[in-house]
Q: What sequence folds into this?
């Protein structure tokens, strides 16, 4: 990878990780203030920035087809930052949900079951909500476990945040060791 490419990727990882971590600070502040809309705005912002990091570390097949070199660049970046194959940053499920949000909504209404309820933008412990076995959760934030539920799939934001913070630390270390990139 040439210096300009490397510098560009390091800068973008630094920005995306900084944006993601700032979004988590806003989420915590919004939680303290009880601002429901801001909690979900912050969680979504955090997840979008994590998805952007994920795309750079593991580009989707459409990107690899269009830009074959992206596969090698992303491999070099994963090696540079010591990203494990089991990293949450490489999980495509959430990023695909966010990228194809419109399709997920269509799909949700395609499968109709009169016995299933619909809940959105709820906050609190799932353990304290009765009848949860028959509810479609569009968005829910479990404050006790820092779990964000998006379209019935659970994502622990603390675990993701820890990986983003570690990545940012690696980037900053890499930049300090190579100030001219």
A:
């Amino acid at each position: 990878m040439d210096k300009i490419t490397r510098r560009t990727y390091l800068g973008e990882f630094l920005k995306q990780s900084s944006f993601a971590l700032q979004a988590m600070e806003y989420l915590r502040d919004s939680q303290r203030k009880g601002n429901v809309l801001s909690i979900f705005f912050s969680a979504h912002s955090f997840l979008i920035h994590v998805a952007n990091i994920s795309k750079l570390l593991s580009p989707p097949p459409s990107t690899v087809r269009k830009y074959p070199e992206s596969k090698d660049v992303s491999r070099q970046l994963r090696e540079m930052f010591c990203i494990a194959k089991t990293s949450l940053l490489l999980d495509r499920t959430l990023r695909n949900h966010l990228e194809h949000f419109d399709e997920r909504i269509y799909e949700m209404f395609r499968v109709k079951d009169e016995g299933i309820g619909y809940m959105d933008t709820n906050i609190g412990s799932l353990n304290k909500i009765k009848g949860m076995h028959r509810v479609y959760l569009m968005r829910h934030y479990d404050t006790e476990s820092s779990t964000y539920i998006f379209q019935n799939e659970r994502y622990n934001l603390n675990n993701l945040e820890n990986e983003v913070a570690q990545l940012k630390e690696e980037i900053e270390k890499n930049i300090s060791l190579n100030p001219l990139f």
The chain has a mean pLDDT of 88. The chain has one domain: 3-177. Residues 3-33 form the longest helix (31 residues).
